[in-house]
Amino acid sequence: MIRVLCLAAALVLVLAAPAAAHNVTAGADLRIAQTIAGSEVTVVVKGTTRVPGPLRIGVIAYQPVSGLPIGLEVHSVEDGHTVTGTAQAAANPQYTQLQVERTGPHELRLRTGNETAVIPFRVLVERESAGDFLIYGGLFVAALLLVGGLLNGALTRPGPAMVLAAGAAAGVTVAAMVIVFESQVPAPPPDGAAPTPTTSTAQGRPYVQVRMDTVPARPAAGEEFALRVDLIDGSTGRPVDDLTAHHEALAHVIVTSEDGRYFRHVHPLRTAPGHLEVRLSADRPGRYLAHTELEREDSGGQLLAADFTVGGTAKASQKADTVKRSGQTGAPATQAGTTVTPRLQPAVPVAGRPTTIELDTPAGVRTWLGMTGHLLIRSQNGEFFGHVHEMGAPGSRVRFTFNFPEPGRYLAWVQYATANRIVTVPFTVNVTASETQ
Predict the structure, then answer these.
(1) How far is 370 from 246, CA to CA, in rounded Å?
(2) Residue 289 domain-assigned?
(3) What is the pLDDT of residues 230-285, one digit of tens each?
C-alpha cells in the first residue's frame, strides 16, 4: 500500500507542468485602453473556453461618442486564419462575436478613419490537469475492482476477492490524495500560452530606451500632430515588442506643458513592433514633457521621459486640453466649470512623509484603467513624475497617499471616470522641508 501511495504522489509531480508565465490566465478578459479617433476607449477581448469557438470583442467609450464604428480583424499568427467584424464604441457596448479556430498568438487590428492599431494577444484555453486524470482514473479502477471483488465473494473465492477489494481501496486512496494535494501542485499552463522564459530572460529583461519625435517635426499650436514613441531594447538595439498590459494599457503617455496648463493622459496605438503613436493638438507654443509608463513581459515597470517643442502662436483655450489650477496648496481648482477642493492631511505636506489627498466625487463614478481614481504628480521642473491610485471601490470620494520626495512646488492632477466622461482635476501642492533636514 505504501508503494502505491508513493507512486501516486510521484505521478502527480512528474505530470504537472511548470507554473503559468506572468500575465497568462485562461478565461480572463483582456482589456486594453486606446486613444483613437480623439476618444478614450477600452477594447475588451472576452476570454474563450474552447477552440474552435466564439471570441467576443467590445469597445467601451469613456467619452461621449456618436456613431464611432471600429473595424475589427483577428489574425492568427501561426496559420494566418483571419476573421473580420465591426464594433460600435459605447458606454455599454454590444459585443461583436467572431470565430477563432486555434489557441496561441493572435493579433487584433483596429481601424477607424485613417487610424490603425495592432494589439497582440493570445487565445488561451484551460487544459485538463494530470490530477483530474488520476482522480477519475483512480475512482474508475476502484469501481471495477470493487465489482470484481463482490462477484468473487459471491462465488466463494475469498482470496481473489480480498485482493480486488484491496486494489479498490488503493484506487480510492490515490484519488483522495490527489484531491487533497492538487491545490498545492502548480497548474499546467493553458493551451496557447507563451513558451517558458529562457535562462537569459528569467531574471528580467533589459531596460527600454525611448526615442520620441513628432510628425510634423515642429508642430504648430492648434494643429493636430502625431506623437511617435519608438521603444528599443537596451541590450540588443532591436524594437521592443513584448509589452504586457500595465493598468489595462500597453503604455500610458502623460503629456504636459512646462507650466502645467496643458495636460493629456493618453494611450498610444501600437502600429508596428516597438512603435507607438497617438494624435494630439496643443493650444500654445513651448516645450512639452512626455512621460511614458510601460512594462515588459518577465520584467518590471519602467518610466521613460522625453520632451518636444510646439511652435506657432497661442490659440484659444481648448476645454479638452487646458486646465485651470490654483496656485495655493489644496485651494479650489476648476475643470469643465466644476469647482472642487482637494483636502490634504497634513495641510502643508512635508517632504519624505506620507500625505493623504482626498477629493469628493459625484455619483456614478466607474472604474477606468482598472482603478477608481488616478493621482498624477509632476515636479515644477518636470524632473520628477509620480502616479498612484485609489484602490477602493467607487464611492463619494477618491483617496490617495503619496510621499513627496523633496520640498518644492508640485503640479498634480486627479482623474476619475463618470458615466460619460473622464474628469481631470488640477491643483498644486507646496511641500516644505522636514525639520530634520
Answers:
(1) 10
(2) yes
(3) 999 989 999 999 999 999 999 999 999 999 999 999 999 999 999 999 999 999 99
